[in-house]
Amino acid sequence: DGEVHINELKNGSTEMFWNPTSEVRRQRLKRHIVLFEEQTDFESERLWQHVTSAINKGDQHKATQEKFVLEEEQRNAARERRESGTEWKPLLFRHDAGTDEWRYKYEDLRPWDPLNDIAQFEKDGILQTMERHLSTRMSNHKATCINNQITRHKRSAKDCRRRKTSDQPSNHSQNTESSCSTPESVQELSDDDGKYLGFESLCAQCGKEMNHLKEIHSAVLSLQKAQQDIHR
Question: Polar residues bias: where (predicted)?
C-alpha cells in the first residue's frame, strides 16, 4: 500500500507506477494472524523472527547469517530423526502416495456457495467456512408450516363431516363427506415455488425469505455474467 516507482537505468529517469490513494488503503484486506505469543516454535512468524528483524533493519549480512543458522538447525534435526528412526508426523499435511505430493489435511474443494457461505477463517491451523445455514432453517420452518396446515385441514374436515352427518339423512352422508373434504381456506398455489402438497401458501416469513433468496440469486447470476465478460 505504498508508492512504487519504475527506474529507467539507461537515462536515469523515474516514473510513478503505483500510488495508492487513502481510499485504496482503507479497502485493503484485513490481515488475520495468530498472536505471536500463541504461536508454536515452528510457525513462520516465530521461526523466522530474527531473519525478518534483520531484513527490516536493512542488514542483509545479518539476515543471511540468521537464515544459515536456522536452516542448519533444521538439517541437524532431520539427521538426528533419520539416525534414530523417528518418523516425522506433520500436523496439518498428509502425503499423497499417488501424486507424491503433500496435501493440506483439511482442504475444502467444494465450490463456493454465495447463498450460504459467508467467509473462510482459520482456527487452530484449520481452515473453516462460516455458513448461513439458511436452507436448513427455512426447510425446518416450512416443514412446521406444512404440518400445522395439515393439522388444521384434518380438523376442519372432521368438523365438517360431523356437522353434515348430524344435519343430513344417513343416505346422503357419503356425498356430503366428499363435497366437504377440502375446506375453503386450503387452496393450491399457482406459483410452483409455493406448492407444498397442494396446501395454501406458507407463512409470510417463508414468502419473504424466498423472495429475498431469489433476489440474491439474481444478483449473483448478474455478477457471474459480468465476471465472465471481463474474463473474455
Answer: 167-188
